[in-house]
Amino acid sequence: MKKKTTLTKMHIAPSTVRYDAVAARDSNEVGQILAGTRKRNGYSLVAFSELLRHYGVDVSDKGISKWEKGYTTPSIYQLVAICYALNIKEGPSY
């Protein structure tokens, strides 16, 4: 006989939540981090596009520019490749 799993609601006080996905999206946090880290590592958009191909991401320099400006966002798989390519090991702290 299978054991029945029950779900319980978590009650989290709003003051303890430190991350707001909507605010991060609206402020283009991912794009700003990407642009800053890419530039600090000395990659042009074209060079970074070529680097990402080595990680299995086929994106043009225009596509990267769209990510950085917040017009589009990379997929989770592209984001992992970006982190490897730029040696990003930790995210922002809140």
Automatic annotation (TrEMBL):
Domain HTH cro/C1-type: 58-93
UniProt GO MF annotations: DNA binding
Segments passing through the bilayer: none
Name under which the protein is recorded: Helix-turn-helix domain-containing protein
UniProt source species: Faecalibacterium prausnitzii
